[in-house]
Amino acid sequence: MSVAFRRENDDEHLEPKFEVPIAPGPNLVTPRGLRLIAAKLAELDAAIAGEADEAARNVLKRDHRYWGTRLSTAQVAEPPPTGEVAIGSRVKFRLNGKIRTIDIVGGDEADAAHDRIAFSAPLARALIGGEVGETVDFGDRTDALEILATTASPDAD
Q1: DSSP state, 111?
Q2: Does the first or last residue of the chain, that is N or C, have fewer Cβ atoms within 10 Å of its Cβ?
Q3: Do residues 74 and 31 make contact, with C-beta atoms less than 8 angstroms apart?
Q4: Phi first, then psi: what are they for 138, rounded to 5°?
Q5: Which tens digit of pLDDT belongs to each residue from 98-140?
Q6: SS3 114
């Protein structure tokens, strides 16, 4: 039989399993974000311990490595200065005549459905460092955002 038609096992033809990619840059988190990461690790510990299927357990272990790395590299952001937008801020602003309120958080706790955006998002980058009453540039538009109010996010602690 030709060597071309032999294979040792089916694992040779499986797609490679890659690690979960980690975003470049600092891993800034709010205190809430740090708690969420620790809770995710505890959840994964329990799932790994209870998983009988080796393939599923390996997927859980890969996720555990990701969250373990995120916990070990987490840097809790300082509370936002009074009146200034920073990570951990709740910001009320006007864009195109519409008023919105968002919380600026770490990358892993971002959730657009709950108005939590990552500090690395373009909107957050435009707002960070701004103060109440200022207008800031956004999306190639001068003075596109007007900052109406900012406080520490109530769930940032």
Answers
A1: B
A2: N
A3: no
A4: -160, 135
A5: 999 999 999 999 999 999 999 999 999 999 999 999 999 998 8
A6: helix
Phi, psi torsion values for 152, nearest 5 degrees: -65, 135
Domains of the chain in start order, with CATH, are 89-152 (3.10.50.30)
Q: What is the 8-class DSSP label of residue 137?
A: E
Q: Give the distance, in angstroms, between the CA of residue 145 and the centroid of all CA atoms in the same chain.
A: 23
Query: Which residue shows structure tokens 């890969």?
Result: 62
155, two tokens = 């769930």
Name every residue whose Cβ is closer than 8 Å to that of residue 52 and which is 6 or more positions away in sequence: none
Nearest by Cα to 106 from 49, 6, 37: 37
Q: Is 110 left (phi over 0), alpha (psi -120 to 50) or beta?
A: beta
Q: Name residue 135's beta-bridge partners.
A: 146
